[in-house]
User: Fold these one by one.
Assistant:
Number 1:
Amino acid sequence: MRQALHILYIIVGVVLMIGCRGKGAGGNHVPRSKDTLYTQKAAMSIYGYQPARALRILDSAVIVGNLSELRADMLRARIYSSTLMRQELDSLLGGPEDVCLDTARAIGERLLRHDSVAADLNKQQDVLEVLARTARLQQDTLGWIELSRKLVDVCRQLSPEAKADALRSEAEIGAALCCMGDYEQGLAKLDSVIDVLRSFTPGLSPGFRFNELDALIIALKRKIMILSMLDRDAETLPLARSIIEHLNDYEQHPAAYHDGSHREPRDSISRGDYIRFYRSQAQNFTTAAYTALGEHGNMISAYAQIERSVHDATAREHIARYHALQLRLEAEQQQVNAARANMIAVGIGIFALLVIVFAVLVIYQNRAIRHKNRLLAQQITETMNYKKQYWEERRTHAPKTSEAEPDLNSLTDEQLFQYLNDVIISERLFLDPKFERQTIMDRFQLSKERVGAAFSKGSKYVKLTSYILQLRLDCAARRLIEQPEKSIVEIADECGFGSHTYFSDRFRQHFGMSPSDFRREASER
């Protein structure tokens, strides 16, 4: 059977290699991995709104060799923790609400233990960012603080360009401290981060590019949320305005902020998405502050700005996403058409080979089963012969009906069982389908407890039903060999089984083969 499996693997492998190197119908070349859309860039460009599709792209990228499993796991953790469609992933994973966050955390913790991650500070930074974000979303404040501190340590060990990442994590620690109730220390840390980032000149200072801008926006957001919790709404207004001013400057002079960091938007579309997202949040903060302060005029004006921004952003977003989706579908359809004919041909060849190999496997398997059944039948037959010889020798010592029965109450449990066993076997009492505990009690004038003790303590049988089933199965096995003219149904009925199905199930369970297989193998010996 193992040889057949090896043959199957070799044949399928050869056919697949031939098919992958061939050409489809009309001479169209089947795309190799480098020609496909299964890349990290393709997955991460859509994960915010299409996380399930992004995960499928990552899986395909690993299969075609565009991405390592380790890198794919790092990206999966980021998708599970950062998607805007969390409910979609919860449904995909088949778990409760926010199970995708548990999945992100599990993947991240596993990655931290990986040797290549432990040896690479950049990879550690990526994983710790995911874990810190996940802890924050799960409201695990202690985990949020601990992971953010680790992230700060890692960033400080990296190049000077990672200073903004360290400051961003410092801001997270400040926000977490506030969530724990330590508002004084938490706000002080947030202020220190904001002061450091504001000390540079946006767009002009070498130390203030996009990465620093993003860190400042995050720090300002965290402070606004903490101040809102403390009902210090008036203090949030200048912070929200600062966010909008920096975003406006970034929108007008994007080249001045360019630093090539992994956080920077790669094109004008993603840059527009970034600006609109944080600008709308700042406008929401402003509206909420005016509402809390009772300044209805300013509140209405701020709300109108939000409404215009949402309308414009929605229109641009729908157009851009529709265009990108249309291009992607066209490219994928071309690949599908090019590969379809070749895959059909390869599939037919593989199917034919599988049918042949499956037939070989079935033959090998049947032979193995027959060999096993033959050995089992031999062992069962030898056991039956031994039991038959044993009981023939004991028959001369078995109690005779003409002799007075011994005082059963004076016997030990072992002696009582032996006596009952001799009588039950010699008189074939177990062949009666209605034979049960009450039969023994009536036949030998014994109490229920005495009969139970005789079988549970005086024999290897825990229950009387197991003892009766053993006797009936042994009897049926002998008759299957000695009475070939009788059907299995007749033998089952004669041996006390009321149901042929029940008899077959118990026979298979006890002896490891069906009654018909046993009879066939035993008769061929």
Number 2:
Amino acid sequence: MSSESAAAAEPIDLTLPDGSVRTVERGSTAFDVAKSIGPGLAKAAIGAELEGSFLDLRTPIERSGAFRLFTSRDQESGDFIRHSAEHVLADAVQRLWPGTEIDAGRQDHSEKFQYDFRFPRPFTSEDLEKIEDEMRKILKENASFERMEVTRDEAAKIFGELGAELKLDRLQDIPEGETITLYKHGRFLDLCRGPHVQQTKQIGAVKLLESSATYYRGDESNEVLQRIYGTAFGSKKELDEWQARMEEARARDHRRLGPELDLFSLQPEAPASPFFHPKGARVYNGLVDFVRELHDEFGFEEVVTPQILDVDLWHTSGHYENYRENMYFTEVDERQYAVKPMNCPTHCLIYRTRLRSYRDLPIRYADFGRLHRYERSGVVTGLTRVRTFCQDDAHVFCTEEQVPQQVSMLMDIILRIYDTFGFEEVLIELSTRPEKRIGSDELWNRAEASLRAALDGRGVDYEINEGDGAFYGPKIDFQVKDVLGRSWQLGTVQLDYQMPERFDLSYIGADGDEHQPVMIHRAMLGSLERFLGILIEHTAGAFPAWLAPVQAVVLPVSEKFVDYARHVAGELGTAKVRVEVDDRAEKLGYKIREAQLQKVPYMLIVGGREEEAGTVNLRLRTGEEVGAVEVEALLDRLRPVISERRLEL
């Protein structure tokens, strides 16, 4: 027997979640493993995972590793269910409109599924209702999903006979030598890698969400297709719970709350470039002030740098070759210039304006400069994906020996900020070298090792995010979960050996020789625009009192008490409380409702009794009625809430 044949005949070891090892014949499927454990599991199984990758129950297993089986009780089963519901969607459309060509589905099935169709018109809401009804009929048929491996010629013949031009084109995307698989349920057949559930009955509930037009392959020069989005779960109860979460998310949507609270607007004259109104600017500047205080505490010096710079700078930094599709360009005096997408090259220019000594390091530059990056119109949304923004950006120039201490210090600041805003769950990831990068492997090895040492030295839990580093260096990313359980990537600490080398940066060491500094890129909130969008949704627009654009509103019960209301407002204003007086000739109940809708933390009701006693009747936006409070006592309550940036009122 040849060595290859012997290797092929060797059994494989699958390590189950409880630590036990199950040995199976090479080429066995996950379904075979489920049957060997028990018939109940085999019947309930939906999918599997091998070494962190999802696996179809029918796919032959060719290697050993950590192995899990999923049933409908496992959260991961949703990916299999939604991917399978995607095929049911395409089946339903083809049953309702025979001859409709289908393109491709969605790669990420963590929440939704989708399919693109060559259809002569946009789908209507009535169409979606018909399709959803047809999908439910298909689910009741309880067809099995079948996995078929075919040759390229066999696949071409099948789709050629079906007149599926789009599938024939997609077939060319599959590299030579890669296994080609088709999935079939009932009469429906599609080119697909899987994975899928066993039978359609394991798709417990489906819901179509919306439809839109899209370009074939995302290219605006190609034909327009019609896309349908949907979601699916293992049960109606799970779908109902998801819809409730989505309703809550819609109620918190910053794109709705922002204009309602008069914080910002988006105008067609400047696409994807927000206009911050006075109230929004107060919140925006409040974020900047908070970060500036931390900069003072931790030894950062603020700099101001130009927004338009000669294109040669971006060749030197490597951004032109690696980032130019996201940059804006202009011409000045017959030379090409670029609008700044990031601050790091300008900080390198400042660093090299003078001779530096090891005694000067670390040098920490902070920059709130406005940045511009081109984002395609199809991906920009609200404040979370814009074309012009500001970062709480900073760069640390230090010796290699100083890296662990500097990284640890940056983590201290970042985690303090998230705690201040009430983000209790923070995931830390170490993102390693991407495929598209600059610099030698030796430098990347040193950079990645330095960040690992900094993380290990703190004893924090972190995950490895392979291949997601910046093109110039590895990074530590910080993800937070909001009150709805959604994850957002905010802060980042990036280690860079490339930029100092490209800009020929140096310092004189203790030995009298020149050495190259290490550069650490740091953002904590990230884009202020994006963070503000996230914060609006996290708080439902009810900002912490210290950040609220209007911290208190005085509500006179009638016009007779407007003067006293203004007197109270004057005392609060002197104490640096952001206060307004609602002196409109409206009923008190209406004014209270308006203040609550505007999420004002403190409502101060004043009438004859309050004027005589020198008090206010304090009501919180939570609906709690505190009652009569002297103005000075009120200030004693507000001062620590605002100065200490407390979350509670």
